[in-house]
Amino acid sequence: MTTERFEVQRMIAASPEAIFAILSDPQGHVAIDSSGMLQSADGERVAGVGGEFVVHMDREALNDRPMGKYDVTVIITEFEANTHIEWTISGTIQPPIEHLYGYRLEPRGSETLVTSYYDWSKISPQYRDSIHFPIIPESALRATLGILARTVEASE
Predict the structure, then answer these.
(1) Residue 147 in contact with residue 11, Cβ under 8 Å?
(2) Model confidence over 60-94: pLDDT tens digits?
(3) Is 132 exposed, middle or buried (0-12, 13-18, 19+ CB in 10 A)?
(4) What is the pTM of this model?
(5) b/e map of 14-52 (b: 16 or more CB within 10 Å)?
């Protein structure tokens, strides 16, 4: 683990398939977001690397940059059904920042160990001094895992 990446884990009482169904669905991303930035999404469930969908964002939830409402395109960079999903975003800031978000799922009996990560180690050099990283704190990833658990366990 580097200072430019963090991971959080949680055991969730649901199958990897049920969890992955939420993580591969644009509406699932909105439903489990703890930051308050994700307002809604357009697009179909992603099925592989290169899959995309649009998320309508509201940066006022973080109150860190005067960006207001804007859209980003989520671009899937790693995809292994029911095991691993990772993405980057492209949006208002160009060229893209190139930070990565993702989840790894490991079945453990009737539960799944879910690892959520945020990696900003490969961000474009021009952003290193102009944007404070991490944008999303580790506590937000942990809170999102709590919302994911609540969401998926209620439907299992």
Answers:
(1) no
(2) 776 666 677 889 999 999 999 999 999 999 887 77
(3) exposed
(4) 0.91
(5) bbbebbbbbbbbbebbeebbbbebbeebeeeebeeeebe
